[in-house]
Specification:
The chain is an all-alpha fold. 65% of the residues lie in helices and 2% in strands. A two-stranded antiparallel ribbon has the order 1-2. A hairpin with a 4-residue loop joins strand 1 and strand 2. The two termini are 21 Å apart.
């Protein structure tokens, strides 16, 4: 197993070039995309980072899916704030909109990330429900970060709600990605 990863790195067997065996090289750490330019770039990243292109690939995938989920979050927040009349104060209406937008975007984030981004990690062997619950548990930290940043910007600094939420979602990105690796999809430990 390579140091600092959650997956073993098998090697490609030696082959000959007519004058003797060609040196074995490790298999790439990443999952080939089928796009030649992307795979060459990932090969280069694999060489430069000593076999950690899989992390770069997962971060790109996670960020892309997270960006879509962030747009869904912002859209949901805006819809609930502007088109769902709730006879409460603005602050309570904002809190309700925040909770609804958070849950909708958590599911919009979990489903494709579970299927694409983290599907090759050892923790993916857990049941769908267990992964979903762990994803939500991990997401609680990101929600707290998002709530603190968004709430502070909107309710204290009077920054518009959508701009506050967008800034908060960017801050929570690295936090969530890291904790999904170390908790949600980490290797299942065998209990003897």
């Amino acid at each position: 197993m390579r140091r600092g990863t959650t997956q073993p790195m098998p090697t490609v067997s030696a082959r000959t070039n007519g004058s003797g065996p060609v040196k074995s090289r490790p298999r790439p750490s990443y999952h080939p995309t089928g796009v030649a330019l992307a795979d060459r770039a990932l090969d280069l990243v694999d060489e430069v980072t000593d076999g950690r292109a899989d992390w770069i690939q997962r971060f790109f995938s996670y960020s892309f899916i997270g960006g879509i989920a962030a747009l869904i979050n912002l859209l949901t927040l805006g819809l609930v704030l502007n088109f769902v009349p709730i006879p409460v104060s603005h602050d309570v209406h904002y809190a309700i909109a925040f909770v609804v937008a958070t849950e909708v975007s958590l599911m919009a984030n979990f489903i494709p990330n579970d299927r694409i981004t983290f599907s090759r990690l050892p923790g993916h062997s857990r049941s769908w429900l267990a992964r979903c619950l762990r994803f939500h548990m991990t997401g609680i930290g990101g929600v707290i970060v998002t709530a603190l940043v968004s709430g502070s910007l909107h309710l204290i600094a009077h920054v518009p709600a959508l701009l506050s939420q967008a800034a908060a979602l960017i801050v929570a990105l690295a936090f969530n990605f890291t904790f999904h690796h170390v908790f949600t999809y980490r290797h299942k430990e065998v209990v003897l």
